[in-house]
DNA sequence: CTGAAAGCGCTTACAG
DNA sequence: CTGAAAGCGCTTACAG
């Protein structure tokens, strides 16, 4: 079963490959008789013709692949959903998503030089050097920033805002002695530190003492130890802002182990609104992220980077939202 | 910044492109002077040469991309981990993973014909028609079966075994009146139905009455309704085998809402051992899947399909394992 | 309005 | 041991 090429379509429809190309690519500026066009289209359909991506890429120097570079830490359900949306949205524009796990040992440079993607989308910050090299090669790079960033080709998901939102909610509920439950995995520090910074700044804004910080792993022991520390001293903690929902669930388990009531003794708020957050005991208050909106923004950014005629999307300001449940 | 080509390397090292190709591809059967080889290697490194994947693909008719086709339902953390492992493992063999979400509107046929992957890996069963077409085009297809399957190019994760394992564990704990908590999402039925079949068969084997089945969504209401139904009648259910951990957590929430104690009144067992399973109240007993082993198997299958000299891996028989915690 | 020809970068028979 | 040449399938100036 040799591949069906444009030459086959040309032969089948009795025209040249040039004409086939013009018809199939809807080249404007060139006028093709309706009859000819139809003949080509029919032949292509009859033969089941699909243009070779490799040949196209070789010719144009640019493939239809969007290289999505993942962070090197465990991706959670959030990034999962994000990629899923991206894949389907970009597919509608004839673009395929190639996922590169940051953990892979192959260098990023080798990969992008090999596949010549039409755009690169980083879900974690790139090394400046990589960004420059790709830009120099003419490949649009859409990056992610964890802080506020005005560049349209940088998608900013300001992590500090998340921490601030958590504190605002806890203060509203009357809490003044706060703690921050950091993740135990160091690779998350880029996120965790910024969320903590947001928590700290918000505490200061509200005139509260600095939050007490402890690392909490996804196990009861580690959470229990943190809870004990938080409850000790003159002013025991009455509310915990957790790095994310999983950490929050660990905190809940730790509080349970210590016989403390939630939210009466200690309130807990997470981040992400994972599907099981509402199933916790008690149901977990959390920060919901508009993943769909983020994915759409990212897809639009890529599309805008690809075509100067497409206006870059404006940063969605309202991506975070408190979901209040019984844990606060 | 035009691309560095093999011609540049040839010029730089004073040899022909043929020689460059021979050196860089470690072509055996051809002997190259050590001096020449070194000169070529140095020039390539100095210039930062990376062969064009497009040109290679066009030439050989086969790319270095492994197309991984996802199911059209929400992928959970399990598949997430799986893809991650695959990406890194295959990267070590110079292969890149291209993820195609089953949900995308573009047809699978168009995608594989366009990118000419060196292999296709289906994480959900393919339509026979698709499989045939790819095989006919000479593309090795590694599939996934949800039942026992002897074909080496089919990875079987016999779902019925999972259900059986759940029942065995519950029976060991002395339960005789069992229920099965099915997921509310219809797209999961390929998995859910087989796990249920395993539960049913095991009940029969143990001489128990047929399990009572109810669909449970990821919310307390739906779980509460299921629990009520299960507890009604002459012989109230005392143990629940859930489709997966998330559903199990919902069941736990339903039992809590009904004021039932776990495991004294009703025991619950899930599947997957998600990170938060051990944080539940009470910690959830579940079936652990050896994802790493599965990923390794899949990667090895792909590699074997690519190279006849590589022996296909033998099916890992021991991929499931009960993790007993306090919920049973 | 349509066709012949060149060239993207690579590898591999085929000659030397 | 090394080089000149062809060809993978496509698109696009350039001619007609």
Automatic annotation (TrEMBL), chains A, B:
A GO MF term: DNA-binding transcription factor activity
Q: Which SMART domains match?
A: HTH_LACI (SM00354)
Q: Which Pfam families does the entry mention?
A: LacI, Peripla_BP_3
User: Which keywords accompany this UniProt record?
Assistant: DNA-binding, Transcription, Transcription regulation
Superkingdom: Bacteria
What InterPro entries would the database entry show? HTH_LacI, LacI/GalR-like_sensor, Lambda_DNA-bd_dom_sf, Peripla_BP_I
Residue ranges annotated for the HTH lacI-type domain, each copy included = 4-60
Q: What is this protein called?
A: LacI family transcriptional regulator
Q: What is the lineage of its organism?
A: Bacteria, Bacillati, Actinomycetota, Actinomycetes, Micrococcales
């Amino acid at each position: 079963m040799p591949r069906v090429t444009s030459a086959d379509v040309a032969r089948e429809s009795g025209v040249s490959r040039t004409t086939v190309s013009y018809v199939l690519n809807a080249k404007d500026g060139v006028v093709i008789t309706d009859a000819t066009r139809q003949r080509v289209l029919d032949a292509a359909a009859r033969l089941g013709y699909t243009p070779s991506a490799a040949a196209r890429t070789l010719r144009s120097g640019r493939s239809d692949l969007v290289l999505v570079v993942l962070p090197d830490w465990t991706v959670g359900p959030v990034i999962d959903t994000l990629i899923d949306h991206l894949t389907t949205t970009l597919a509608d524009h004839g673009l395929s998503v190639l996922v590169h796990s940051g953990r892979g040992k192959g260098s990023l440079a080798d990969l992008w030089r090999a596949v010549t993607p039409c755009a690169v989308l980083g879900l974690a910050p790139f090394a400046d050097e990589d960004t420059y090299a790709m830009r120099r090669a003419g490949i649009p790079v859409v990056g992610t920033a964890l802080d506020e960033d005005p560049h349209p080709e940088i998608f900013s998901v300001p992590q500090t805002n998340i921490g601030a939102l958590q504190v605002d909610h806890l203060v509203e509920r009357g809490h003044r002695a706060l703690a921050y439950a950091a993740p135990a995995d160091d690779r998350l520090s880029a996120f965790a530190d910024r969320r903590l910074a947001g928590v700290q700044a918000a505490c200061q804004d509200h005139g509260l003492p600095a939050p007490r910080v402890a690392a909490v792993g996804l196990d009861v022991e580690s959470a229990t130890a943190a809870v004990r520390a938080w409850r000790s001293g003159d002013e025991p903690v009455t509310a915990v802002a957790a790095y994310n929902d999983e950490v929050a669930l660990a905190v809940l388990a730790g509080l349970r182990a210590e016989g403390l009531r939630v939210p009466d003794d200690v309130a807990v708020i997470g981040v992400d609104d994972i599907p099981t957050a509402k199933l916790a005991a008690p149901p977990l208050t959390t920060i919901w992220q508009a993943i769909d909106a983020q994915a759409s923004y990212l897809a639009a950014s890529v599309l805008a980077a690809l075509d100067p005629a497409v206006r870059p999307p404006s940063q969605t300001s309202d991506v975070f939202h408190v979901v209040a449940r019984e844990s606060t």
